[in-house]
Every structure is written in structure tokens, then in C-alpha cells.
Amino acid sequence: MQTGKIGVTTENIFPIIKKFLYSDHEIFLRELISNAVDATQKLKTLASVGDFKGELGDLTIRVKVDRKKGTLTISDSGVGMTADEIDRYINQIAFSGAEEFLEKYKAQANGIIGHFGLGFYSSFMVSDKVEIITRSWQDGAKPVRWSCDGTPEYKIEDADREARGTDIVLHISDDSKEFLEDHRIEELLRKYCRFLPIPIAFGTEKEWKDGKEVDTGKDRIINETNPLWTRKPAELKDEDYQKFYRDLYPAQEEPLFYIHLNVDYPFNLTGILYFPRIKTNFDIQKNKIQLYCNQVYVTDSVEGIVPEFLTLLHGVIDSPDIPLNVSRSYLQSDSNVKKISSHITKKVADRLQEIFKNDREQFEKKWDDLKLFITFGMITDEKFYERAEKFALLKNVDGKYFTFEEYEKLVKENQTDKNKTLVYLYASDKDDQHSYIQEAKARGYDVLLMDGQLDPHFINTLETKLKDTRFARVDSDVIDKLIVKEDRKEVSLPADEQADLRLVFEGALPAQDHYWVSFEELGEGANPVVITQSEFMRRMKDMSAMSPT
Ligand code: ADP
Ligand code: MG
Question: What's the predicted TM-score (pTM) here?
Fold first, then answer.
């Protein structure tokens, strides 16, 4: 038997861990099961290169609760550890880093805990005592037991274990009794382990026989080891994607589109993104994308990893290249994350472009639902705008759809003002502005329907992006003046007199409302002086009434 002192100066490791890791105790299970998965994957790798020549056998990872003993045990049939390895991997690395780690991250400790790979340590958040009973895969390796009750003293001794692999036995502490409840463990397994690549068993399968429930004694596997996103798109059917969506979001309506991401250069990333169907603003939910790292659930808060407008999408992203064990602010400045983010944007745009090109009819049918995502993206993301301007649509009051290019062609002849600026007329409320719409149409003008939640912002974006174009609401009182009339005469009043006169008028108008004064040559149907409220100001008012989420 060997005893030793773990390399920390702190007297007792419990208080530190409990204090700083307070916010998210439950992640211990994710960490321990991840270690079990790692150990199993390592063994498979050793077997595939021929270093391990034995039988792999059953590699299922088992989670067991023993309420009488007050223990929770995680068992794997992976590589196991020799006494020497325990010394290196558990005693040295794990504990020696504790002080430094806490020094370094104290400030962020609460918020970031869920993102830390606290690994084996985290077991002490919920346990009075932790045991490792393990036997290495190597020929002739002796089984060992390591135990530690949270003081810096640990014990290593000989153990009894025939099979290769590791048991981690947690003696659950009084204030963590919840982790001895089946339903609680079940819930955590579902959250963190649902798509892990090695089968995980919790409990046994029950069966109904002759009106009675009987225990079959067979393992009940709680995870799906080959989730859809890890499979080849070519092997999958539309139904598979629909079904996966229903599994992830049982209460949601069918999605509009999906995008299967599959990148292996310059970084690794797989995933499936769905455009959800949004009926009302209440359906808008952020952070429905789940982030995985090698099939281990990490978080559903993807802000900073995908562009903001894509946080409205649903689905799964899996990447071993997103540094998950760091704080959010670090994440956002990480160059890898930036690359990933712009790549996802590109993929999403490419897919939309493809659907638009191949099946415009379908695209138009879905446009009203898609519009929110696409306009939000165009407003907030320069790069996305550049890609989306080829497939984004404008809809007119008659329900016809146009690309930007098509629309420009449509109104070019008839809807320019005297500066040759294109004037895009739009209605923000079809019913309210009905008579104005009729009037504009009677003059041969086309009227867009811009009644979406984000449209006031979108119009602003379009005005800065589209060359020589401005938007005017169909009921603005100068509609007909904005549009070139062949017979319009140049104003003969000299410019300096116009300026003087303008001052007089402006002096009489409330300044904060930004009125604009202009002059017109007298003639049939013309007014000598035209006072308009700036379209921009009007829109600002609209905007403050309707803000994006
Ligand atoms: P990390 O997993 O980030 O390396 P951990 O603290 O979780 O850090 O684990 C430390 C090390 O202990 C692992 O790298 C591994 O070598 C060893 N280890 C932990 N759990 C197991 C296990 N179930 N089987 C084999 N080795 C393990
Ligand atoms: Mg680990």
C-alpha cells in the first residue's frame, strides 16, 4: 500500500471546489462519463493500430445508483489505469493544477463553470469520498484502488478486479442526495449524454408480459450512438431530418429547411441547422441550437459562436475545434471561432441560394416565413447581406415577389424623382393605407408591402446598400411629387431666394420633427411650397414602436 500527499498547499480540497464550482454541480456526471468514453475510444484506437490484441468485448458504459450504500458508480471497459498512471493523471495533473486554476479563474468562476472541463475533479462537488477501481488493458497489469476523501491525502492500494476498465465510485455527500435519485440521473443523462458515441446503460429494460411489467435484465441504453449529424448526407433522406427535428423539438411544427453542415478543413465541424417555422412573434426563441463537442453536450447558448441572426435557428453543431473550456469573452475573440462563425454564415447562404435557384416556387412559398431570418441577417451581418442580396425577395401589395434586381428593373422607368433617385413606394399597413395604395397604383406605380416586424430597420439597410434608391411610404403626402413627371418645370426662383424663403417657413415649424421645405414652379396641379416631414423621422417613430427581438 502506498500513501502520499497531493501537491496542493490548501488543507482541504472540498471547500474550494464547493465554493467556486457552486453554480453547476450537475456537470460532474458529464465529466465522468466523458472520461469513460475517452477511455473506451482510446482502447478502440489501440485495437485498430494493433497494439491491443485482446477482445474488445462489451464496451457499454454503465451508470448505477446504490441508494443503500449512498453511491453512484460509473463503470467502463476502456483502457483503465496502472498505479503509475493514476499517479500521473490523477494525483499530479489533476490536483497540482487546482490552486493555479482557481487563482486564474476566480473572477469568472460562477458564470463559466459549465464550460470548464473540470474533469475528474468535479466529482468532489457532490461526494464525500471518491474511489477509482481500475485495471489497465496492458498485459499483466495489476488492478488498483485509489481513494480520496477530499483531504489532500489519497490512498493507492491493490484491488480486486478481473476485467479491464474502470469504476468510479462516488460516495454522494448529504447535500447532494438528489444524485441518488433515478429520475435526476436519468434527466442528466438525457441532457448531456444523449448522443455520446459509446452505449450508456442506466437500469434495465422492462417489458409487459401477461399484463404485468417484468424486468428483462437487459441493459437499458439511454443514448443514440450515431446521431444524424455524424452520418453522411448522401445516406440520409428528408424523413430522417424531419424525424430528428421532432426528436429534438417535440412540440414544434415542421421546419422550413435544414442544412447539414460537414466541414473538415480548416477546422472540424458537423451539424444540422433547421429554419423553424415561426407563426407569431411568441414563437421566436433564441438559443435552441445545441452545441456539442465530440457528441458531448456542452451548451445551448451559442451566442458568440454563430452570428446573432443564426441564434434563431434550431439544431445541433458539433465541433472539437471550439475551445469550450474558456470564458465567453475569450470565445468571442478566438480566431477559430470567428472562422467557424463566418463559415456557418456562408453555408447557410449557399443553401438558401441553392433552394432559390433550383426551386423558386418553393422558395417564394416559404418566403413569408423565412423573411424574418433573412432580413435580420441582412441587417446585422454585412457578409450575409452580400450573399443574400441575390436571393432576398421584395413582396408587393399584390403578393408578387421580386429579387432586388428584378424590382429595380420594374420601377426604373416610372418611379424616379428629379434627382434620378429610384423611389420605392411601400405600404406598412395594407388596410390602413388602402386608398393611398389604390391611388398609387392608378398612377402606374408599384407598391411594396413592408409590414414585417423588422422592415423599418430593413428599409434603412436597403437605403444604404441599394444605389440611388430611397423608400417612401405610400401615404406620404408628397408621393406624386417624388415621381418624375415629364411636364414638370424647373423652379425659376433663384437658389438664394429659395434659401431665404425656406428659413422663414422652417422658422415657423417645430424643429424636432424635421420638416423639409421645397419649392415648385407654379402650374397645373402644383403647389408653390411643399412641406414634408422627413421620411426618416417618420420611420424612426415606426421603429421605436416595433423593435427587433
Ligand atoms: P481530462 O479528461 O481533461 O484529461 P480529467 O481530470 O477528466 O481530465 O481526467 C484526467 C485523466 O485521468 C484523464 O486524462 C485520463 O488519463 C485519466 N482518466 C480519468 N478517468 C478515466 C477512466 N475512466 N479510464 C481511464 N483513465 C481515466
Ligand atoms: Mg475529462
Answer: 0.76
Residues 6+ apart with CB under 8 A from 461: 378, 379, 385
Helix (H, G, I), strand (E, B) or coil at 367: helix
> In testing the pocket of ligand 1, which one of 120, 146, 298, 326 has its CB within 8 Å of the most ligand atoms?
120
| Best mutation site among 6, 85, 89 for ligand 1 pocket (most ligand atoms within 8 Å of CB) | 89
Is the N-terminal amide bond of 266 cis, ω within 30° of 0? yes
Which is it for the CA torsion 528, 534, 535, 541, positive or negative? negative
- pLDDT for the residue 499: 76
Please list the helix, strand and coil fractions of the chain in percent, rounded to the nearest 5, in that order: 45, 25, 35
The closest of 269, 263, 396 to 322, measured between CA atoms, is 269
Q: How far apart are CA 132 and CA 121, in angstroms?
A: 12
Q: Kindly tell me the sign of the dihedral angle through the C-alpha atoms of 222, 228, 230, 235.
A: positive
Q: Is the ipTM of this complex over 0.90?
A: yes
Band (442; pLDDT cuts 50, 70, 90): confident
